[in-house]
Amino acid sequence: MFVDSHCHLEMDSFEQDRDKVIEKSSEEGLDYILTVGTEERYFEKVVGIIEKYDNIYGAIGIHPHSSSEYTEKTAKIIRKYLMHKKIVAYGEIGLDFFRNYSPKDTQIKAFKDQLMTAKSLNIPVIIHSRHARDETLSILQETYHGNASGVIHCYSYDMDTARKLLDMGFYISIPGTITYANTQKATEVVKNIPMDRLLAETDAPFLTPVPHRGKRNEPHFVKYTIARLAQIKNKGIEEVASSIRENFVRLFLGQKHIGSDGFAGGGGDVPSPTLRRAGASQQT
């Protein structure tokens, strides 16, 4: 029933118990997980995970924190990985002027270059934007001219900004921070986002929701975020979870049909919603 539209299972935080975490997610009712590789060193781990579990999909891109490492060679490597039939998005990419781990001009160049690659390949983008509202809006509008395909991950701006992004064609993804105290701005955003443009995520291992705040975040904790979204929307949890699932499938799985071979050239349908290991027999 549930979907975690953004996490980082490839990170070292899950190195000792990754399979157990994934199995727990299955037990807790997760239909789909999207794991997002943000540096070149994670790309092969993402592939390993998505090839092991049929209903885990991947995204790759260079995070703004690491944009100083983005080169022409990196761009070629990314293009190769994007040919994998279970890599369903380019990201996360964007701008982060809060930490400024990479210079602003370097972030902007890497962001623009990666957006153009995604656009040329007709693949959805996952956008990271923190303390960079105006620059992000300007670059996205310049690139897509109101016809974007993608999601604003861990959304943190106001409703006015959300409307601009929705008008461009983006989905809005809400993390576990919506379960924290003093989230009036985020609550207002959730109230006003159309149900057919709303996603939920954990960003695991980060941003753990209440009641597990302070612990490592895990994909199945998305249920707490979805419960809070349902409360804000004054709707049932199953209704909201079902809508989010439909949105996830529409955005990320609608353009790619997954074959058993992984890379381009295979056929077949999107697997049924169960986090089984790749190659295991289908349940009836």
What is shown here, in short?
By secondary structure, the protein is α/β, with parallel strands linked by helices. The protein contains 9 helices and 8 strands.
Measured between the Cα atoms of the first and last residue, the distance is: 17 Å
Mean pLDDT: 91
Question: Mind telling me which CATH architecture this is?
Answer: Alpha-Beta Barrel
C-alpha geometry = globular
Major β-sheet strand ordering: 1-2-3-4-5-6-7-8
Mind telling me the C-alpha Rg?
18 Å
Descriptive account of the structure:
The chain is α/β, with parallel strands linked by helices and 284 residues long. The chain has a single domain, classed as TIM Barrel (Alpha-Beta Barrel). It contains 9 helices and 8 strands. An 8-stranded parallel β-sheet has the order 1-2-3-4-5-6-7-8, sandwiched between helices. The longest helix has 18 residues. The C terminus is likely disordered.
Question: Which helices and strands appear, and what pairs or packs with what?
Answer:
Elements: E1 2-7, H1 18-27, E2 30-37, H2 40-52, E3 56-60, H3 72-82, E4 87-96, H4 104-121, E5 125-130, H5 133-144, E6 150-152, H6 159-168, E7 170-174, H7 184-192, E8 198-200, H8 222-233, H9 237-253
Parallel strand pairs: 1-2, 2-3, 3-4, 4-5, 5-6, 6-7, 7-8
